[in-house]
Amino acid sequence: MAEQQQIVYLNGELIPLGEAKVSVLDRGFIYGDGVYELVPVYARQLFRLEHHLRRLQHSLDGIGLANPMSPTQWESTIRALVARQPFDDQGVYLQVTRGVAKRDHAFPAGVAPTVFMMSNPLALPSREQVERGVAVVTADDNRWRRCDLKTTSLLGNVLMRQFAVENDAVETVMFRDGMLTEASASNVLVVIGGTIVVPPKDNHILPGITYDATMEFAREAGIPIELRPVPKAEALAADEMWLSSSTKEVLAITTVDGKPFGNGKPGPVFRRMWSVFQTMKPKVRQTA
Ligand SMILES: Cc1ncc(COP(=O)(O)O)c(C=O)c1O
To answer: Does the CB atom of residue 175 touch ligand 1 within 6 A?
Structure first.
């Protein structure tokens, strides 16, 4: 299969996917003991790489794992991987696990981490999704309390996303103790009276790189922003609700739990923000 020929990176080597093998004792497999990043690549330009590497460091620090590479090494390795793919717009997935060791919960001593990277075509939302918006369902956020770490232990998020799929929705928007957190693989922003209102970055949400980009672009475009906890009732009564992520950019939510949200169409602030995002994204390339 052609897919098996795709070049991936594993522990210092660029090799075909079909040859990339990891031990069943890898702690990523046994415990989900690792962290990851997803870096979008537009026309072979890495988008906000510095931000992703900073968040990777935060995740590694959070799980007590030394960073196996310097930012320069990450950059050159990612660039080498990107250069080996036959498509221009990519999503580079990278993951670092605590390596291969005899099964025991406590950290093993003197074990090299496993570093894996692959790059797939960047799957952005369709024109129809941008123009019509998407459906979400809601649920109580039952994940752990370190959602600021981008860990490969994603079962909580996997179950939430599956709940969405089973209900013909693209995402599950979550609330913890009656407050908006995020969605299974996206941040959530609402618009109230023309102001973008977003939950502040804390341990309950992933500090999204697209969330930051959206805030920056909105500031530059003069769209007011308020960072504060958002009660569930307020979120569900907001004028607009959006998702943000590296693969969704910004996307309007137009159906919640099977019912039209607002007037069931992407709102004016979303339409403005989406255009601003499209114009601004090339300007903020961290690496040319
Ligand atoms: C739980 C969660 N929240 C938010 C995001 C958005 O983060 P980013 O904008 O960096 O893609 C993601 C991305 O995968 C995610 O998994």
So the answer is: no
How large is the C-alpha radius of gyration of the chain?
19
How far, in Å, CA of 287 to CA of 75, rounded? 9
102 assigned to active site: no
The single-letter DSSP state of residue 143 is: S
Q: What is the largest CA-CA distance in the chain?
A: 58
| Global pTM exceeds 0.85 | yes
The alpha carbon of 115 and the centre of ligand 1 are apart by a number of angstroms equal to 20
Edge-to-edge strand list for the sheet holding 13-16: 13-16, 7-10, 114-121, 90-97, 34-42, 45-46
Facing residues of 172 across strands?
137
* pLDDT reading at 287 higher than 70: no
Q: Is 209 in the pocket of ligand 1 (CB under 6 A)?
A: yes
Q: Are 242 and 252 in contact (CB under 8 A)?
A: yes
Q: Which of 21, 150, 259, 265 is catalytic?
A: 150
pLDDT score recorded for residue 32 = 98
